[in-house]
Amino acid sequence: MALLPLGDFFSIVFMAFALGMDAFSVGLGIGMQAIRLKRIFIIGLTVGIFHIVMPFIGLILGTLISNKIEGIAILGAGLLLCGIGFQMILQTIQKKESPLLAPAGFGLFVFALTVSLDSFSVGLSLGLSGLATVLAICLFGLFSTLLTWTALLIGRRTHHLLGTYSELLGGSILFGFGLHILF
């Protein structure tokens, strides 16, 4: 069994880091809600699992799915993030306590799916094989988990510092990230 060249390993690490940055960006916004440490742990693990499952599905279905379906999924993710961000902004303005889509249950599923769609598209085009594919997918999960935890903890700390305005900022971040995906 041949070892993976160092340049290829670093390429995979950088790809994993780049894919995890979506989860980091969105996690900052989500973390500005009042979230307990146990929930942060669960959110990070869920996002990591999705960053493993989605590229795996992309690898398997790569020959069966056209780029049109990928574009529709990315459009849906952008619209969903804009909607969640807008809802958080409205919730702050109207001073309502319960979010429309909290990072638990179905809301956690939607959050993890949204931030892992880019890893699905990478899985579609991942030209690696054997050990490198397994390594890449595992690193996608590891980096996204660590970056999500980091962002949620930063967002949680910011929430304590900014109070009510942190949810306004978090909603703005989510809305802006949704616009970034769309455009």
TrEMBL record:
GO terms for molecular function: manganese ion transmembrane transporter activity. Coiled coil: none annotated. Pfam families: Mntp (PF02659). Keywords: Cell membrane, Ion transport, Manganese, Membrane, Transmembrane, Transmembrane helix, Transport. InterPro entries: Mntp/YtaF, Put_MntP. It is a multi-pass membrane protein. The keyword Cell membrane applies. It is found in: Cell membrane. The chain crosses the membrane at residues 6-28, 40-65, 71-90, 102-124, 130-154, 161-182. One of its GO terms (cellular component) is plasma membrane. The keyword Transport applies. Belongs to the MntP (TC 9.B.29) family. PANTHER family: MANGANESE EFFLUX PUMP MNTP-RELATED. Probably functions as a manganese efflux pump. HAMAP family: MntP_pump. This is Putative manganese efflux pump MntP. It comes from Gracilibacillus ureilyticus.
